[in-house]
Predict the structure.
Amino acid sequence: MLLAYASSKDFKLFQMDVKSAFLNGFISEEVYVEQPPGFENSLFPNHVFKLTKALYGLKQAPRAWYERLSSFLISNNFTKGKVDTTLFIKHFENNFLIV
């Protein structure tokens, strides 16, 4: 839909892949993980680790990334979509930016 609309309106489109979006994201809740195989501490083999940042593959990682991105965009005068809350729009003069 986006490509068809952009084509019909002769919009410029830019794509950006954020490969490390979920790496080192901030998390607000306490999350503990087991020691991964091959990286066990021989002095404390039954201890768990408390995470201070999100890990790739962690179920909280997408939420942590979205909260951080959403806060940044809103603080920079973007408005959140009413139907699709992952859509952000910023208007300036006769132009607009969709993220």
In short: The longest helix spans residues 61-75. The CA atoms of residues 19 and 37 lie 25 Å apart. The radius of gyration is 20 Å. The mean pLDDT is 84.
